[in-house]
Amino acid sequence: MMRTRTMNTRLVWLAPILAAAQLVGCAGVGGGPDPVLEEADLAAVEEDAPLGGEALARRRLDLDRAWRDLQGFDATMRSLVDRKDSRSVRLLDDFLGEYMGRHLDPMLRPMWQSSHPETMALDANLRFMKAQILADMRYTGRVQQVIEDIESRYMGRESMLVEYPVGEQRPLGEALEMLRESKWNG
Predict the structure, then answer these.
(1) Does the model's pTM come out above 0.85?
(2) Is 154 helix (H, G, I), strand (E, B) or coil?
């Protein structure tokens, strides 16, 4: 009986202590700056700032690597479609969606690289290749978003040479017209 009474006394004190701890914990969550949010904001600012020197060279390498990756994915997709391997096409489609969302889209987000003399051609070529792959996958809405993005980023530079389709160079304006047509032909 003595033991039960001691346990009840402890439980009576335990409830207010837990309630106070919850209040202190909740107050601490919103009380100060969120370090994760601050890091994300800082990363966004760094992404938008133009690069120079070694960082610019690294960005060019990253863009070039992504270009080669997309060329390989495009060739693989075409081969799978030619072989009528629908299961593998679906798997590659899922993979490409993840690749674009996690790797390619963040790489293409900074505005500065669309106007920087050392990266603008790679940036434009990547955008056209991305649009071509999306057209092959029959994502016409996403292709239209890429077309609009290219138009806004490269406004006034319609005579700039881009590689579209792969292996052929033509002015950006002409390439955009071809891309619009291929969007529906996929």
Answers:
(1) no
(2) coil
